Here is the input.
Amino acid sequence: MTLWPGVFYVLLAFVSGSIPWSWILGKIRGVDIRKEGSGNTGATNLFRVCGRGIGFTGLFLDAFKGALPILAAKYGIAGFTPSAGQWVLAAASIFAVMGHVFSPWLGFRGGKGVATTFGVLMVLSPLTVAVGFAVFILIFSATRYVSLGSVSAPVAMIPAVFILEPAEPSVQIIICLVAVLIVVRHKSNIVRLLRGEENKFSFRGGKDD
Here is the structure.
């Protein structure tokens, strides 16, 4: 493989990941979600500020923007570029999440990367994602803390990927790296959880995202 397809897929992943769909949907509704609710530009805050319907739309688009470039890299773009190798897929996956977290369209500030990571990993290892999703649902249902579920899910995926994808070191590395990134991005939430100050999820505002 020449250098060109690899560079193209990594750039495509970053640009796709950087599109702040939840913020855009909020602006369409006349709301800047950076100034409402938790102030975060992710789908959880969109849910809180604008409601379920537009919130689910934002969640889907944030996941889709992660999945799309990885699908392109994995299978190629007919008549344009061939499929990428495993390590290009790994780099593209990281850059898709980084694009969301450090969106240049929002001054290199963005969401916490959970939905975009979900989209990326659905392409690479759906079984591992199923484990993470099950953990998220279990923790969120029991506690109503989105942040606790969002941190628990990627942590659970680390051992899961070594069990479910033993022959895929690139996928293992991706999941370990994005898990660490998501946990770091939730540092303030973790501090509030430890202090007992974290708000449970509601559609009336708060700081759980």
In short: The radius of gyration is 17 Å. Residues 3-195 form one domain. The chain is about 70% helix and 0% strand.
